[in-house]
Design a protein that fits this description.
- It holds the Pfam family Na_Ca_ex.
- This is Sodium/calcium exchanger membrane region domain-containing protein.
- It is found in: Membrane.
- It is a multi-pass membrane protein.
- Helix 1 runs antiparallel to helix 2, helix 5 packs antiparallel against helix 6 and helix 9 runs antiparallel to helix 10.
- This protein starts with a helix and ends with a helix.
- The protein is mainly alpha-helical.
- The protein has one domain: A middle domain of Talin 1.
- The chain contains twelve helices and two strands; from the N terminus they run H-H-H-H-H-E-E-H-H-H-H-H-H-H.
């Protein structure tokens, strides 16, 4: 077990370092082009920082045939993403992250909230239909993500600022791709190590998925958040989190498609069901934070973040007690 935990932490460090490099590339890219920040953060960066979730969930579903682990990974990662955004908001309180966010980030998070609502309906038998072995919820997820892409594409101008910067942009793209490859390989190894930890420890796969996989695969978002805030690119920092969460739901849909034994939504155990409720509450609070006008009162500004942190820690307490 000690060797497995050591491997887990080493791989996690590699993911963090690669994610910081990617964030720096993206920040410079947005400054050298006219491509909108919401497009870069909500689609491109979100997709890359969600690569760990993509690799680990698909490998958990296809290779390990463990739907519970895959669901725990995504639901745990999304809950943890909003948690780290709330914590980051308190740590960088002087920056007032949510006073700088744009409307496209609000729309993306609203779509994520709808996805949570659909999964919540699935839990109570109101949305349990299937087409073949694929749950109908997966089709709703794919439709909502397509809507998000259209909203972002229509909402921002996307063109190069100056043809002379093409050479530097090429270098940034190469660095971006190399870092992404490192993240993919490390994430695949993390999923294997986590599965071994779950088997040896005897703890439920969904809780292990939420904790070890969910946290480890959220490291890119956490590293990117800190890196982008330090670079004073606040809208990109928030956009990466909300974009990653919506993209993560697409991964659930892809996992559902690959899991031929039935719909992945039929395998939601107690821990994952709790994560759906936690994620829904967090997402509603985050939507409120994104929608409200500039808040100058410190207490009113931090209150939703404190509520998100409380909800997450309460979830941890319930999960440990049930375990």
């Amino acid at each position: 077990m000690g060797m497995l935990l050591t491997q887990y932490f080493i791989l996690s460090i590699i993911v963090v370092v690669s994610s910081i490099r990617i964030s720096s590339c993206v920040d410079e890219f947005t400054k050298r082009t006219k491509i909108g920040g919401a497009f870069i953060s909500g689609i491109v960066l979100a997709g890359v920082t969600s690569l760990p979730e993509l690799i680990t969930s698909l490998s958990s579903t296809i290779v390990l045939n463990n739907a519970d682990l895959a669901m725990g990974d995504i639901l745990g990662s999304n809950a943890f993403n909003i948690f780290i955004l709330a914590v980051g908001n308190l740590i960088f309180i002087k920056s007032r992250l949510f006073n700088w966010t744009k409307q496209l980030n609000v729309k993306t998070n609203v779509l994520s909230t709808f996805v949570y609502f659909f999964i919540f309906l699935n839990l109570y038998g109101f949305l349990t239909g299937r087409i073949g072995h694929i749950g109908i919820t997966s089709f709703f997820i794919l439709i909502l993500y397509y809507i998000n892409i259209r909203l972002v594409a229509d909402g921002e101008e996307q063109e190069l600022l100056n043809p002379k910067v093409t050479c530097r942009l090429r270098v940034l793209v190469y660095q971006f791709i190399l870092s992404a490859i490192v993240i993919v390989v490390s994430s695949l190894l993390i999923s294997v190590v986590t599965d071994k930890i779950a088997r040896i420890s005897g703890i439920g796969s969904s809780f292990i998925g939420a904790m070890f996989l969910g946290v480890a695969t959220s490291l890119p978002e956490m590293a990117s958040l800190v890196s982008l805030v330090r670079l004073k690119n606040y809208d990109l920092a928030v956009g990466n989190i909300v974009g990653s969460n919506l993209f993560n739901f697409v991964i659930i849909a892809l996992s559902d498609i690959c899991y031929v034994s039935g719909s992945i939504f039929e395998f939601l155990d107690t821990s994952n069901r709790l994560l759906v409720i936690v994620g829904l509450l967090e997402s509603i609070l985050l939507t409120y934070m994104l929608l409200r006008k500039e808040v100058k009162n410190l207490l009113l500004y931090v209150l939703p973040s404190l509520m998100i942190i409380f909800i997450y820690f309460y979830y941890l307490r319930l999960s440990l007690n049930n375990g």
